Amino acid sequence: MRLRFPAAAVGVLVCYFFLDIAMGVLLSEKRDRAEVLRRRTAEEWIRELQVVGDPTRRLRATDALWQFGESVVPDVARCLHHPARQVRESACLALSRMGPTAQAAVPDLIELVGGPTEPARLEAIRTLSRIGPAATLSVEVLSEATRDTDPTIRQSAIHALSQLGASAAPALCSLLQDDDLRVRMYAVKALAWADADPTTICDALEPLAASDNADLREAVFVAFSGQGSRAVNNLKRLLRNDNPAIRRQAALTLCKLGASAQAAAPTLVAALNDTDVSVRFWALRALAELELPDIADRTRIIAALDDPEPDIRWQAADTLARTRESGFVAHHRTDRMNQ
Predict the structure, then answer these.
(1) Is 107 within the bounds of a domain?
(2) Core-most of 61, 109, 150, 196, by most CB within 10 Å?
(3) 28-54, pLDDT tens digit by residue?
(4) Count of other CB atoms within 10 angstroms of residue 91
(5) pLDDT of 254-278, one tens digit each?
(6) Cβ count near 195 (within 10 Å)
(7) Nearest-angstrom CA–CA distance, 110 and 105
(8) 112 located within any domain
(9) In CATH, what number is assigned to the domain containing residue 166?
Protein backbone atom coordinates (compact mmCIF):
# COMPACT_ATOMS: atom_id res chain seq x y z
CA MET A 1 0.00 0.00 0.00
CA ARG A 2 1.45 3.38 -1.01
CA LEU A 3 1.64 6.02 1.71
CA ARG A 4 0.41 9.50 0.93
CA PHE A 5 1.51 12.60 2.78
CA PRO A 6 -0.56 15.80 2.78
CA ALA A 7 1.12 18.72 1.01
CA ALA A 8 1.09 20.72 4.26
CA ALA A 9 3.09 18.01 6.04
CA VAL A 10 5.66 17.99 3.28
CA GLY A 11 5.92 21.78 3.51
CA VAL A 12 6.52 21.60 7.27
CA LEU A 13 9.28 19.02 6.79
CA VAL A 14 10.97 21.20 4.16
CA CYS A 15 10.78 24.23 6.48
CA TYR A 16 12.35 22.26 9.32
CA PHE A 17 15.09 21.07 6.96
CA PHE A 18 16.09 24.58 5.90
CA LEU A 19 15.72 25.92 9.44
CA ASP A 20 18.15 23.28 10.62
CA ILE A 21 20.64 24.34 7.95
CA ALA A 22 20.27 28.02 8.88
CA MET A 23 20.80 27.29 12.57
CA GLY A 24 23.89 25.26 11.71
CA VAL A 25 25.31 28.17 9.72
CA LEU A 26 24.64 30.63 12.57
CA LEU A 27 26.24 28.36 15.14
CA SER A 28 29.21 27.82 12.85
CA GLU A 29 29.68 31.60 12.46
CA LYS A 30 29.49 32.00 16.23
CA ARG A 31 32.14 29.31 16.74
CA ASP A 32 34.34 30.90 14.07
CA ARG A 33 34.07 34.27 15.78
CA ALA A 34 35.01 32.78 19.13
CA GLU A 35 37.93 30.99 17.49
CA VAL A 36 39.18 34.23 15.95
CA LEU A 37 39.01 36.03 19.26
CA ARG A 38 40.88 33.19 21.01
CA ARG A 39 43.53 32.79 18.35
CA ARG A 40 44.95 36.33 18.50
CA THR A 41 44.57 39.51 20.47
CA ALA A 42 43.35 42.79 19.01
CA GLU A 43 46.90 44.19 19.17
CA GLU A 44 48.16 41.30 17.07
CA TRP A 45 45.46 41.85 14.46
CA ILE A 46 46.30 45.57 14.36
CA ARG A 47 49.87 44.62 13.52
CA GLU A 48 48.59 42.28 10.81
CA LEU A 49 46.55 45.13 9.38
CA GLN A 50 49.75 47.11 8.85
CA VAL A 51 51.58 44.41 6.86
CA VAL A 52 52.24 46.17 3.56
CA GLY A 53 53.48 43.30 1.40
CA ASP A 54 50.73 40.72 2.04
CA PRO A 55 47.13 41.71 1.15
CA THR A 56 45.83 38.34 2.38
CA ARG A 57 47.01 39.00 5.91
CA ARG A 58 45.47 42.49 5.86
CA LEU A 59 42.18 41.04 4.64
CA ARG A 60 42.14 38.51 7.47
CA ALA A 61 42.82 41.32 9.90
CA THR A 62 39.84 43.34 8.61
CA ASP A 63 37.65 40.24 8.95
CA ALA A 64 38.79 39.79 12.54
CA LEU A 65 38.98 43.35 13.86
CA TRP A 66 35.35 44.31 13.34
CA GLN A 67 34.39 41.49 15.71
CA PHE A 68 36.20 43.20 18.57
CA GLY A 69 33.76 46.09 18.32
CA GLU A 70 34.17 49.64 19.55
CA SER A 71 37.23 48.87 21.68
CA VAL A 72 39.56 48.65 18.65
CA VAL A 73 38.23 51.71 16.76
CA PRO A 74 40.91 54.14 18.03
CA ASP A 75 43.70 51.74 17.04
CA VAL A 76 42.22 51.13 13.58
CA ALA A 77 41.66 54.88 13.14
CA ARG A 78 45.37 55.48 13.73
CA CYS A 79 46.07 53.18 10.77
CA LEU A 80 44.26 55.71 8.58
CA HIS A 81 47.41 57.84 8.86
CA HIS A 82 49.79 55.03 7.90
CA PRO A 83 52.30 55.97 5.15
CA ALA A 84 51.20 53.04 2.94
CA ARG A 85 48.06 53.51 0.89
CA GLN A 86 47.20 49.79 1.14
CA VAL A 87 47.10 49.98 4.93
CA ARG A 88 44.89 53.07 4.89
CA GLU A 89 42.46 51.35 2.53
CA SER A 90 42.42 48.21 4.71
CA ALA A 91 41.72 50.34 7.78
CA CYS A 92 38.77 51.92 5.95
CA LEU A 93 37.46 48.47 5.13
CA ALA A 94 37.71 47.35 8.74
CA LEU A 95 35.89 50.47 9.97
CA SER A 96 33.28 50.09 7.25
CA ARG A 97 32.41 46.63 8.51
CA MET A 98 31.88 48.06 12.00
CA GLY A 99 29.19 50.46 10.76
CA PRO A 100 27.87 53.00 13.35
CA THR A 101 30.17 51.42 15.97
CA ALA A 102 33.07 53.21 14.22
CA GLN A 103 31.73 56.70 15.01
CA ALA A 104 34.90 57.64 16.92
CA ALA A 105 36.88 57.35 13.67
CA VAL A 106 34.78 59.97 11.82
CA PRO A 107 37.27 62.88 12.37
CA ASP A 108 40.11 60.76 10.95
CA LEU A 109 37.97 59.73 7.98
CA ILE A 110 37.04 63.37 7.35
CA GLU A 111 40.72 64.24 7.21
CA LEU A 112 41.26 61.43 4.70
CA VAL A 113 38.39 62.56 2.48
CA GLY A 114 39.61 66.16 2.61
CA GLY A 115 42.96 65.29 1.04
CA PRO A 116 42.51 66.02 -2.71
CA THR A 117 45.41 63.76 -3.67
CA GLU A 118 44.60 61.01 -1.17
CA PRO A 119 44.30 57.65 -3.03
CA ALA A 120 42.21 56.11 -0.24
CA ARG A 121 39.57 58.86 -0.14
CA LEU A 122 37.03 56.78 -2.08
CA GLU A 123 37.20 54.04 0.56
CA ALA A 124 36.94 56.69 3.28
CA ILE A 125 33.76 58.10 1.69
CA ARG A 126 32.23 54.64 1.49
CA THR A 127 33.10 54.06 5.12
CA LEU A 128 31.32 57.26 6.17
CA SER A 129 28.32 56.04 4.22
CA ARG A 130 28.29 52.79 6.22
CA ILE A 131 28.61 54.65 9.52
CA GLY A 132 25.44 56.55 8.58
CA PRO A 133 23.79 59.28 10.72
CA ALA A 134 26.53 58.89 13.33
CA ALA A 135 28.85 60.55 10.77
CA THR A 136 26.93 63.85 10.49
CA LEU A 137 30.16 65.77 11.10
CA SER A 138 31.22 64.78 7.58
CA VAL A 139 28.42 66.65 5.75
CA GLU A 140 30.66 69.58 4.83
CA VAL A 141 33.60 67.56 3.51
CA LEU A 142 31.25 65.25 1.59
CA SER A 143 29.53 68.27 0.05
CA GLU A 144 32.91 69.46 -1.19
CA ALA A 145 33.63 65.99 -2.57
CA THR A 146 30.50 66.20 -4.73
CA ARG A 147 32.35 68.81 -6.82
CA ASP A 148 35.36 66.56 -7.40
CA THR A 149 36.60 66.03 -10.95
CA ASP A 150 36.36 62.25 -10.53
CA PRO A 151 32.76 61.13 -11.26
CA THR A 152 33.14 58.07 -9.00
CA ILE A 153 34.09 60.31 -6.07
CA ARG A 154 31.12 62.59 -6.82
CA GLN A 155 28.65 59.72 -6.99
CA SER A 156 29.97 58.06 -3.83
CA ALA A 157 29.88 61.35 -1.91
CA ILE A 158 26.26 61.97 -2.91
CA HIS A 159 25.32 58.44 -1.87
CA ALA A 160 27.10 58.93 1.46
CA LEU A 161 25.15 62.15 2.07
CA SER A 162 21.90 60.26 1.49
CA GLN A 163 22.84 57.93 4.37
CA LEU A 164 23.49 60.69 6.92
CA GLY A 165 19.86 61.53 7.66
CA ALA A 166 18.08 64.87 7.86
CA SER A 167 21.27 66.87 8.51
CA ALA A 168 22.45 66.18 4.94
CA ALA A 169 19.16 67.09 3.22
CA PRO A 170 20.09 70.77 2.58
CA ALA A 171 23.36 69.69 0.95
CA LEU A 172 21.57 67.20 -1.29
CA CYS A 173 18.88 69.73 -2.23
CA SER A 174 21.52 72.28 -3.22
CA LEU A 175 22.99 69.71 -5.64
CA LEU A 176 19.73 69.72 -7.59
CA GLN A 177 20.86 73.06 -9.07
CA ASP A 178 24.31 71.81 -10.10
CA ASP A 179 25.46 72.55 -13.64
CA ASP A 180 26.43 68.91 -14.19
CA LEU A 181 23.45 66.79 -15.28
CA ARG A 182 25.00 63.67 -13.76
CA VAL A 183 25.29 65.35 -10.36
CA ARG A 184 21.64 66.42 -10.52
CA MET A 185 20.66 62.87 -11.44
CA TYR A 186 22.70 61.38 -8.57
CA ALA A 187 21.15 63.90 -6.16
CA VAL A 188 17.58 63.06 -7.24
CA LYS A 189 18.19 59.34 -6.73
CA ALA A 190 19.88 59.99 -3.38
CA LEU A 191 16.97 62.12 -2.15
CA ALA A 192 14.57 59.33 -3.07
CA TRP A 193 16.21 57.23 -0.33
CA ALA A 194 17.27 59.97 2.07
CA ASP A 195 15.96 59.86 5.63
CA ALA A 196 14.79 63.49 5.68
CA ASP A 197 11.58 65.52 5.84
CA PRO A 198 9.42 64.30 2.91
CA THR A 199 7.87 67.73 2.32
CA THR A 200 11.32 69.32 2.01
CA ILE A 201 12.40 66.61 -0.43
CA CYS A 202 9.27 66.85 -2.60
CA ASP A 203 9.34 70.64 -2.77
CA ALA A 204 13.00 70.56 -3.80
CA LEU A 205 12.35 67.94 -6.49
CA GLU A 206 9.29 69.57 -8.01
CA PRO A 207 11.11 72.15 -10.23
CA LEU A 208 13.16 69.35 -11.81
CA ALA A 209 9.97 67.57 -12.86
CA ALA A 210 9.72 70.22 -15.60
CA SER A 211 13.26 69.53 -16.84
CA ASP A 212 13.90 69.23 -20.58
CA ASN A 213 15.80 66.01 -19.90
CA ALA A 214 13.42 63.03 -20.01
CA ASP A 215 15.67 60.79 -17.89
CA LEU A 216 15.89 63.41 -15.15
CA ARG A 217 12.11 63.89 -15.20
CA GLU A 218 11.62 60.15 -14.92
CA ALA A 219 13.97 59.97 -11.93
CA VAL A 220 12.03 62.77 -10.20
CA PHE A 221 8.67 61.03 -10.64
CA VAL A 222 10.16 57.75 -9.40
CA ALA A 223 11.29 59.66 -6.30
CA PHE A 224 7.76 61.07 -5.90
CA SER A 225 6.23 57.61 -6.07
CA GLY A 226 8.45 56.54 -3.17
CA GLN A 227 7.16 59.38 -0.98
CA GLY A 228 3.54 58.19 -1.06
CA SER A 229 0.84 60.60 0.09
CA ARG A 230 3.51 63.19 1.00
CA ALA A 231 4.03 63.89 -2.73
CA VAL A 232 0.35 64.31 -3.65
CA ASN A 233 0.27 68.10 -3.42
CA ASN A 234 3.30 68.37 -5.70
CA LEU A 235 1.78 65.95 -8.20
CA LYS A 236 -1.50 67.87 -8.19
CA ARG A 237 0.33 71.01 -9.25
CA LEU A 238 2.26 69.10 -11.94
CA LEU A 239 -1.00 67.66 -13.26
CA ARG A 240 -1.92 71.24 -14.21
CA ASN A 241 1.39 71.91 -15.99
CA ASP A 242 1.34 73.28 -19.55
CA ASN A 243 3.51 70.41 -20.81
CA PRO A 244 1.41 67.31 -21.64
CA ALA A 245 4.40 65.02 -21.03
CA ILE A 246 4.66 66.31 -17.45
CA ARG A 247 0.89 66.02 -16.90
CA ARG A 248 1.06 62.45 -18.23
CA GLN A 249 3.81 61.45 -15.80
CA ALA A 250 2.01 63.15 -12.91
CA ALA A 251 -1.19 61.22 -13.64
CA LEU A 252 0.75 57.97 -13.99
CA THR A 253 2.53 58.53 -10.67
CA LEU A 254 -0.75 59.29 -8.89
CA CYS A 255 -2.07 56.03 -10.34
CA LYS A 256 0.91 54.19 -8.83
CA LEU A 257 0.16 55.71 -5.42
CA GLY A 258 -3.24 54.01 -5.34
CA ALA A 259 -5.43 54.93 -2.37
CA SER A 260 -2.65 57.18 -1.03
CA ALA A 261 -3.62 59.69 -3.74
CA GLN A 262 -7.10 60.26 -2.30
CA ALA A 263 -6.46 63.99 -1.81
CA ALA A 264 -5.89 64.33 -5.56
CA ALA A 265 -9.35 63.02 -6.53
CA PRO A 266 -10.81 66.44 -7.56
CA THR A 267 -7.70 67.25 -9.61
CA LEU A 268 -7.85 63.85 -11.33
CA VAL A 269 -11.52 64.33 -12.14
CA ALA A 270 -10.69 67.70 -13.71
CA ALA A 271 -7.99 65.96 -15.76
CA LEU A 272 -10.68 63.91 -17.51
CA ASN A 273 -11.14 66.96 -19.76
CA ASP A 274 -7.44 67.07 -20.65
CA THR A 275 -6.62 67.35 -24.36
CA ASP A 276 -4.00 64.59 -24.02
CA VAL A 277 -5.39 61.06 -24.31
CA SER A 278 -2.75 59.53 -22.00
CA VAL A 279 -3.51 62.04 -19.26
CA ARG A 280 -7.22 61.17 -19.39
CA PHE A 281 -6.41 57.44 -19.40
CA TRP A 282 -4.11 57.51 -16.36
CA ALA A 283 -6.45 59.85 -14.50
CA LEU A 284 -9.23 57.28 -14.94
CA ARG A 285 -6.93 54.47 -13.81
CA ALA A 286 -5.99 56.45 -10.69
CA LEU A 287 -9.64 57.24 -9.89
CA ALA A 288 -10.47 53.52 -9.89
CA GLU A 289 -8.61 53.21 -6.56
CA LEU A 290 -10.24 56.22 -4.87
CA GLU A 291 -13.44 56.99 -3.00
CA LEU A 292 -15.70 59.43 -4.88
CA PRO A 293 -18.51 60.59 -2.58
CA ASP A 294 -19.39 63.54 -4.86
CA ILE A 295 -22.03 62.46 -7.40
CA ALA A 296 -20.82 65.15 -9.82
CA ASP A 297 -17.38 63.51 -9.89
CA ARG A 298 -18.90 60.13 -10.62
CA THR A 299 -21.02 61.65 -13.37
CA ARG A 300 -17.83 62.94 -15.03
CA ILE A 301 -16.51 59.37 -15.16
CA ILE A 302 -19.76 58.18 -16.73
CA ALA A 303 -19.42 60.93 -19.33
CA ALA A 304 -16.04 59.43 -20.28
CA LEU A 305 -17.98 56.43 -21.66
CA ASP A 306 -18.75 58.68 -24.64
CA ASP A 307 -15.11 59.69 -25.21
CA PRO A 308 -14.07 59.42 -28.90
CA GLU A 309 -11.03 57.34 -27.91
CA PRO A 310 -11.81 53.62 -27.40
CA ASP A 311 -9.09 53.22 -24.75
CA ILE A 312 -10.70 55.97 -22.68
CA ARG A 313 -14.16 54.39 -23.01
CA TRP A 314 -12.77 51.02 -21.94
CA GLN A 315 -10.95 52.51 -18.95
CA ALA A 316 -14.03 54.48 -17.90
CA ALA A 317 -16.06 51.26 -17.90
CA ASP A 318 -13.35 49.49 -15.89
CA THR A 319 -13.19 52.35 -13.37
CA LEU A 320 -16.96 52.25 -12.94
CA ALA A 321 -16.89 48.47 -12.49
CA ARG A 322 -14.22 48.73 -9.81
CA THR A 323 -15.80 51.58 -7.87
CA ARG A 324 -16.29 51.06 -4.17
CA GLU A 325 -19.63 52.89 -3.91
CA SER A 326 -22.27 50.18 -4.11
CA GLY A 327 -25.09 50.71 -6.57
CA PHE A 328 -24.11 54.07 -8.02
CA VAL A 329 -23.61 52.60 -11.53
CA ALA A 330 -27.14 51.19 -11.50
CA HIS A 331 -28.44 54.50 -10.20
CA HIS A 332 -26.95 56.44 -13.10
CA ARG A 333 -28.06 53.85 -15.66
CA THR A 334 -31.62 54.36 -14.42
CA ASP A 335 -31.22 58.15 -14.76
CA ARG A 336 -30.06 57.72 -18.35
CA MET A 337 -33.02 55.47 -19.20
CA ASN A 338 -35.43 58.05 -17.82
CA GLN A 339 -33.95 60.86 -19.91
Answers:
(1) yes
(2) 109
(3) 555 555 555 557 788 989 999 998 888
(4) 33
(5) 999 999 999 999 999 999 999 999 9
(6) 14
(7) 9
(8) yes
(9) 1.25.10.10
